[in-house]
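Feature request, filed as a ticket because there's no other form

It would be nice if the structure record came with a short human-readable summary line next to the tokens. Right now we just get the raw output. Example of a typical job, pasted below so the devs can see what we mean:
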Amino acid sequence: MLLSCLHKNLIEAGCDEAGRGCLAGAVFAASVILPADFVCEELNDSKQLTEKQRYKLREIIEKEALAYAVGIVSPAEIDEINILNASFLAMHRAIEQLTSTPDHLLIDGNRFKKYKSTPHTCVIKGDGKYLSIAAASILAKTYRDDYMQELHSEFSMYDWNNNKGYPTKKHREAIKAFGATIYHRNSFTLLPDDRQLTIEFEV
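Raw output as currently delivered:
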């Protein structure tokens, strides 16, 4: 069973991101404030769950959470500010949309750029330790998966409905065959021997 909080007397928001290691698509982040008495034994790090479990838990989280929000940073922004800063920005965008103001932030990982004056604690593998971070990981993951499914309808040759933009063999073979789209991150090494591909498709 995951921990409910770090500080019992504070309103805590868990934060996590999804899509940081992808070659294509935006990076998503979520922030979630759960009730102090929230209990859900099935809730865990999104990577440890099946797709069906994640979507089932998303319904529970959105129904039970005191507040939740999702932040998005586009591929163009990622190329401009780099993926680490984009991950922080996505979290900031999620936090600023919360309908309740948290007293403290629980951040998955070991680094974070301070959000305004709100204190925070970074927790390595926090999505497997705290309920609110696990909830954030599920929202970020499922909303990003929905987004990549929509992009797949435009560019099915990249297999984004399966790889979600990650650097699989099929994804890289498609990049080599068809070039990069406007959804690809040009600051990433899209192909091991070709660091910059021409944009060949328009929305």
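Something like this underneath would help us a lot:
The helical segments are 51-64, 75-81, 83-96, 131-154, 160-163, 169-178.
Strands lie at 12-18, 27-33, 67-73, 104-108, 120-123.
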